[in-house]
Design goal:
This protein has 392 residues and is mainly alpha-helical. It folds into three domains: 12-101, Fumarase/aspartase (N-terminal domain) (Fumarase C, Chain B, domain 1), CATH 1.10.275.10; 108-359, Up-down Bundle (Fumarase C, Chain A, domain 2); 362-392, no CATH class. Helix content is 62%, strand content 5%. It has 16 helices and six strands. Strands 1-2 form a two-stranded antiparallel ribbon. Helix 9 (209-215) links the parallel strand 3 and strand 4. The longest helix is centred in the N-terminal third of the chain and has 37 residues, at 108-144. It is elongated. The relative contact order is 0.10.
């Protein structure tokens, strides 16, 4: 039974179409919705809308649901539409009328937004932790290979010598930039939408939005209730922009590693446990993981464009279109975290072939060095440049 059921029969095809896979996606939101519902119940009690006994019943019921969720024993039926209905139906079934009181002072609009914000805050911290681990692994490997020569390229041609240490440290530095971006966006979304209801606040009834904001460890709450609905999709787009920057770094690092691992280069050797084989060619050790990391950057960028398209051209207020913004953010978090984790394993397990790197520094790569040796001897730069070019 839906929370908005007024007794009219529903077309099953319409129900299936409008619910989509929300009942599956919402399994990820269940712990966060329970946490937000508990904070809301405590606020209702403080404001005199629930008795002490009713609060105890709701606390017990929500703790039971949380335990069932941890054991993967709390399914959401399609006809329930989402986790909010599943939670309310459980509470009403096991604790009676108090289950129906929990929705006092809120709408599914601010309820899902609150659960999403809590989920997003948690996921951002997890991405940051994984990116920090990858950066540390890159930094450690770069220190090991500070003096290992590596050809530098421009226009896909040998240019000047660098070191394997500088190359690896470059990606560690770039990830540090991504972490700063995640911090900024994490600060922007750290505002509670709870109590904004359907986007127009709660009429007549007195609620304490500051209390629930603190209970849920938000830095503040959205004072303009319209902004809560306006932020849906917009904040997710910001998050996906940050995730796409992480994936862009992984994309380019994967491209380097795929190239350097080729037998024609032989500058790095990938860990065998992270390579695949061929069904017909016994000798193959394929860098499939890196190829998929490279490809998944485009998947995350595509999800960002999808999400921005979904929330554009909409009049202010809530629209059902916004339901479809949930999938892109969840799938992008998942693929980004998997990609960062696997790249960390690749960097930790790969070998840099020092001898091959040394042999790859061919004489023409020292041309610029020869120019500046002449400059130090007093030859004007442009004359030195022409002189060395003639000798190549």
């Amino acid at each position: 039974m839906t929370l908005w059921d007024k007794g009219d029969p529903l077309d099953n095809i319409m129900l299936k179409y409008t619910v989509g896979n929300d009942h599956v996606l919402d399994l990820k939101l269940l712990p966060y919705d329970c946490k937000a519902s508990l904070a809301h119940a405590r606020m209702l009690h403080t404001m005199g809308h629930l008795t002490g006994e009713e609060l105890e019943q709701l606390q017990q019921g929500l703790n039971e649901i949380s335990d069932l969720v941890e054991k993967d024993m709390f399914p959401i039926k399609m006809e329930q539409e989402d986790c909010h209905t599943a939670i309310e139906e459980y509470l009403t079934k096991h604790y009676g009328q108090v289950g129906k009181k929990l929705h006092t002072g809120r709408s599914r609009n601010d309820q899902v937004l609150t659960a999403l914000r809590l989920y997003e805050k948690d996921m951002i911290e997890q991405v940051k932790g994984m990116a920090q681990d990858l950066a540390a692994t890159l930094k450690g490997s770069s220190q090991t290979h500070q003096s290992t020569p590596l050809p530098g390229y421009t226009h896909m041609q040998k240019a000047m010598p660098t070191t394997a240490g500088a190359w690896l440290e470059m990606y560690a530095c770039s990830l540090s930039d991504d972490l700063r971006l995640l911090d900024v966006i994490g600060g922007i979304i750290d505002t509670s939408p709870l109590g904004s209801a359907a986007g127009f606040g709660v009429p007549v009834l007195e609620v304490d939005r500051s209390m629930t904001s603190k209970e849920l460890d938000f830095s503040s709450y959205m004072e303009n209730p319209l902004q809560a609905q306006h932020s849906r999709g917009k904040y997710e787009s910001m998050i996906l922009h940050a995730l796409s920057q992480v994936m862009l770094d992984l994309n380019r690092l994967a491209s380097d590693l795929i190239l350097f691992n080729m037998s024609e280069f032989g500058l790095v050797t990938l860990p065998p446990s992270l390579c695949t084989g061929s069904s017909i060619m016994p000798q193959k050790k394929n860098p499939d993981v890196l190829e998929l990391i490279r490809a998944n950057y485009h998947i995350v960028v595509g999800e960002q464009m999808k999400l921005q398209g979904l929330c554009s051209n909409l009049m202010f207020g809530y629209h059902r279109d916004l339901q479809l913004t949930k999938g892109p953010i969840m799938s992008s978090f998942e693929v980004t975290m998997d990609s960062v984790l696997l790249m960390e394993k690749v960097i930790d397990g790969m070998e840099i072939n020092v001898v091959a790197c040394e042999d790859a520094i061919s004489p023409e790569m020292l041309a610029t060095q020869k120019v500046y040796e002449l400059v130090q001897a007093g030859v004007p730069f442009r004359d030195a440049y022409i002189q060395v070019a003639k000798d190549l």
